[in-house]
Design goal:
single chain, 309 residues, alpha/beta, 37% helix, 16% strand
């Protein structure tokens, strides 16, 4: 993969994706063998929004590669509280680190930040925009469980504000898959995302009910209704809890169905599903470490080779 920054899943070709997933599989097979590969390197973590899995898995990934991390901390305890701009914050942290990870509530913020830094920058979520590293670990989980060739995938929940959905749907156009989108009409795919998928020749179907499509699915990717993305609380209350699955629902599914979720969940998946063979969402979260190790390894490797030229 020859990229300076990773901002959007649309940057990634099938060759790019497979290169990251192949390296992640190699790392996953013997993680200890990669310890020390980037000793002395520093990763800057800049999270302007709350995060558990993404922040901790990037932190773990860098440390397992032998590097170190620095963290700007919460917005409340940083100079952002004093009015510092995103551009200035990123310029400052760039001086301390060899690569940066940015999460920010505003769509387009990561792309803007790349205009002010020269070290590799990874978008860890920009509002309702993109979350490309989540997509990579999602694809890795799919490949390990259901494959990425001739499969039918259902994506259910908040398709309007869900950045994980937007990234995943774009990346899946590189593979032989059929995509079904299940949501209330008020949370259906944004027109721009739908247009881009059709332009890429994706096989896309939209539904308001899971019932009609569930028996055909090889993968069901569930997302929560994101309260924090709604400009109007009343609009959230209209759809909250409307799309949920339990073991009764799964009786109509294929025995081999893989159920995924980017987490955190609220009530979209009943806890009883955790004990079934379908549940792969905790495995999915754990896959964030080898996948992000692979990505960081490749980005830092590219940066080093460019410096040597």
């Amino acid at each position: 993969m020859r990229q300076d920054h990773l901002i959007s899943a649309t940057q990634l070709s099938r060759e790019d994706i497979e290169a990251v997933l192949d390296r992640a599989a190699e790392i996953d097979g013997d993680m200890d063998a990669w310890q020390g590969r980037h000793a002395g390197s520093v990763l800057g973590l800049c999270f302007f929004e709350p995060s558990t899995r993404t922040r901790m898995s990037f932190d773990t990934a860098m440390k397992r590669l032998g590097g170190r991390t620095i963290d700007m901390g919460s917005v409340e305890s940083s100079s952002v509280k004093k009015g510092e701009t995103l551009a200035d914050t990123m310029r400052v942290v760039e001086g301390y680190a060899d690569a940066l990870v940015l999460r920010h509530p505003l769509e387009g913020s990561a792309k803007m930040a790349t205009e002010f830094v020269d070290v590799p920058l990874v978008n860890a979520g920009d509002g309702a925009g993109q979350h490309p590293t989540q997509t990579l670990l999602d694809l890795y989980t799919m490949r390990e469980n259901a494959g990425l060739n001739d499969v039918t995938i259902g994506i259910m929940g908040d398709l309007k504000y869900g950045r994980t959905v937007h990234s995943l749907a774009a990346a899946l156009t590189n593979f032989d898959v059929r995509q079904h989108f299940i949501s209330p009409e008020s949370l259906s795919l944004p027109r721009s995302v739908r247009y881009d998928l059709h332009e890429e020749g994706a096989q896309v179907r939209e539904h308001t009910s899971l019932t009609e499509v569930l028996p055909d699915l090889d993968v069901l990717y569930v997302t929560r209704i994101q309260r924090e993305r709604f400009p109007d609380e009343n609009e959230y209350l209209k759809v909250a809890g409307e799309y949920q699955i339990d073991t009764d629902d799964l009786e109509r599914a294929k025995e081999s169905l893989t159920v995924m979720h980017p987490l955190p969940r609220v009530d979209e998946i009943a806890p009883e599903v955790d004990e079934t063979s379908h549940a792969k969402y905790f495995e999915q979260a754990h896959n964030g470490v080898p996948v992000r190790m692979a990505l960081l390894d490749m980005l830092l490797e590219n940066a080093t080779s460019e410096d040597d030229q």
